[in-house]
Amino acid sequence: MTHVDERVLIDRLAAGFARSPRQLNAVHESDAELVRLPDGDTVLAVTTDAIVEEITAGLYRDPYLAGWMIVAVNASDLAAVGAAPVGIVVSESLPPDFPDAALDDLQRGIRDAAERHGLPVLGGDTNQAGTLALSATAIGTVPADRVLTRRGAKPGDRVFASGPVGIGTAFAFATLMCGDGARVNAVPFQPVARLKEGRCLPGIASACMDTSDGVIATLDELMRLNGVGVRWERPLIEAVHPTALATARRAGLPAWTMLAGPHGEFELVFTVPDARCAALDAAAAAIGWAPIELGVVMEEPVCSLRDATEWLEIDTTRIRNLFGDVACDPDRFLGELLGGSAPRVVGRSSGVATT
After folding, report:
1. How many domains does the chain have?
2. Residue 92: which CATH number?
3. What is the pLDDT of residue 180?
4. How many whole angstroms separate alpha carbon 251 and alpha carbon 184?
5. Number of neighbours of residue 114 by Cβ within 10 angstroms
6. Same structural domain for residues 132 and 218?
7. pLDDT (tens digit, 9 = 90+) per residue, 86-102?
8. Which residue range(s) make up the domain with 283?
9. pTM of the complete model
10. 270 and 322, same structural domain?
C-alpha cells in the first residue's frame, strides 16, 4: 500500500464501523475514546497503541525502553483526556530466538512504567512473530461533567505546553543519526506521561492533545479540528528542552526542527480561555507544576513561530505528513525539511508579532 495521509487512512478504516451511541467523541477528536457508562456519571477512557515501526527502525533498540514506552504511549493518551488510570493490558509478539536477558529487560521496562504511571498490568496476550512487536490498551475514567477532547479551542485562547518540548525529536535525531550521517551525543529518553497534570485540565482547558507525533503535528491537528491558527509568541529557546537545543546546535540544525520530527516527547499541548488562566495557575501550583505558555489561538488558520530574530510561518500539514511522504527515510526527511518544507520568514522578532 502506498503512503497516504494518516487521517485519510483512519477515516477509511473507521468508515465501516457503527459508532456507539454512548461515545462522546468523533473520529480524530480525542486522544482516547470516550464512552459514557450506564451509570451516566462516569466516562470510560480507552486507548490502544502499538510499538512496531519504532522497533523496526531501530529507535527503541533497548528492550527495557521498548517495554517502558508501550506503557508510556498509552498512558499519555489517557493524560490528554484528563483520565484517572485504571489499568493496562499488554500484547507481546516475541521472536522465537529472543534472548532471555532481553525478555527480562523488556518485562522490567513494562513493570517499572506500569508502577510509575499507576497503570497495573491487568493481563494481555503473547504471540510468536518474526520480530518483536508490542501493543497495549489502557483504560481510565473521567467524570461525565469533565470531558476534555481536542475540540473547543477558540480565537483568543492561550496555548500552553505541559513542559519543555522537542526532546522526542532530539532523541530520534541522535538515535538515527540524521544530518549527513553526523553523530551527535546520545539523548537520554524515558518520558513519563503527564497523567497528574492532565487531571488538572478538565473544566479549565478548552482543548488538549499529546505530542506523541511531534509538536508541529499536534498543532496541525488542533488547528484543523478547531478551524483556527496558532501564533507561538514565546521564543523557542524558552520552550524547547535544553537537551534538544544542544542537539540541534551540534547537528547544525535550527531550533524549530526539534518541533518537526515525527517522534514526540509525550507532553500535552492545550488551550485555555483567558478567563480560566487564573484557575490553571491555581491548579498547577497545587501540584507543583509549571506549564509553559506558548502563545495564542488565532482566527486565521496559519501557524507562526517566534525564533530568536524572526517570525516563521510553518506549513504544519506539509511537515506533519513529510516523514511518510519520503518513505520514512531520515536523511530525505531532513533534506526536505530544510528545503522545500522550511518555514517562510514573515517578519522580524522584536518582542511583538509583525505579521
Report:
1. 2
2. 3.30.1330.10
3. 41
4. 6
5. 25
6. no
7. 999 999 999 999 999 99
8. 158-348
9. 0.93
10. yes
Nearest to 56 by CA among 127, 108, 134: 134
347 backbone dihedrals φ, ψ, rounded to 5°: 170, 175
- Does the residue 148 lie in any domain? no
d(CA 59, CA 43): 35
**Residue 352 predicted with pLDDT over 80:** no
CA 51, 57, 63 angle in degrees (round to 5)?
A: 55
How many CB atoms neighbour CB 344 within 10 A? 10
Residue 166 vs residues 89, 189, 242: alpha-carbon distances, Å: 29, 11, 9
Whether 136 and 188 share a structural domain:
no
User: pLDDT tens-digit profile of 19-71?
Assistant: 889 999 988 899 999 999 998 899 999 999 999 989 998 899 999 999 999 99
Q: What span, in angstroms and rounded, lies between the C-alpha atoms of 266 and 157?
A: 22
Task: Give the pLDDT confidence score for residue 126 in this predicted structure.
Answer: 94
For the chain, the straight-line distance linking the first and the last C-alpha, in angstroms and rounded, comes to 41
> Model confidence at 4, in pLDDT bands (50, 70, 90)?
low
Whether the CA torsion 26, 327, 318, 66 is positive or negative: it is positive
Residues 189 and 234 in one domain: yes
d(CA 99, CA 109): 15
H or E stretch including 347? strand 344-348
179-199 residue pLDDT tens: 444 455 688 999 999 999 999
What is the pLDDT, as a whole number, of residue 11?
A: 77
Q: Which letter, b or e, does each residue of 290-312 get, where b requires 16 or more Cβ atoms within 10 Å of its Cβ? A: ebbbbbbbbeeebbbbbbeebbb
Beta strands, E only, 58-166: 84-94, 121-128, 133-143, 158-161
Cα–Cα distances in angstroms (integers) from residue 192 to residues 10, 136, 163, 277, in the given order: 27, 16, 11, 25
